[in-house]
What does this fold into?
Amino acid sequence: MTMTNTEVRILPSKDEVARQGAEEFLGAADEAIDANGAFSVALAGGSTPLGMYKLLAADPYVSRIPWERVLFFWGDERCVPPDHPDSNYGAAWDAFLSKLPLPGGNVHRMRGEIDPEAAAREYELLLDHHISGEPPRIDLILLGMGDDGHTASLFPHTAALDANERLVAPNYVPKLDSWRITFTETLLNEAHRVIFLVTGEGKAQALRAVLEGEPDSDTYPSQLVRPRNGHLLFLLDEPAASLLSNK
Ligand code: 6PG
It folds into this structure.
């Protein structure tokens, strides 16, 4: 029997989304480290989580987390080198990880600079090595959502939506004419906790479709994210939640 515990939290501002995201990160880290001595977290790309990352790299959060026990992963990556302006790893490194007292061996980026299939396969092996569970059960996965309802690099009507025999898959995105590497539904839904951070009026239509629309995950891939035995939290600001009926 599977059970997803879902919570939708509507907050007054993007800053409050970032602050509550940081609080949730702290709570998840405390819980995992108390239970297992380590905390595995997969970071989201895009711009929304950057405010949360910056909070975590400063007081009061930076001094409340034993960073040497935190293992960092990414839920997706663009197929670019780590120093490319589009790199999710690069953005998180600049905003967050470079400011932490963190052993270098705790940061595990997807290698966007190599062949996408090889990078995906390499990352599956890396996750199997570092994280227990079959499939690996990541303690916390952070996700954003695009205005088309995509999450990670699971874009509407793309091949990776069906790659459920994989944990990590290469994905060609026609509308961007670019390759990505992404967690699949199988890996996402094995997580202990998943937190979506979604802000801005531009996301309102897709969010209504994802949360209240007819099941159509090929069009709105964020609908796929329902941890089989875990917690799903949506941290939303009021503009993003403005079209939801049961606010
Ligand atoms: C990426 C992200 C992607 C992102 C959404 C939202 O690699 O771009 O993984 O899924 O979370 O596109 O992006 P914003 O937060 O910038 O709106």
Remarks:
- The chain has a mean pLDDT of 97.
- The first strand starts at residue 3 and ends at 11.
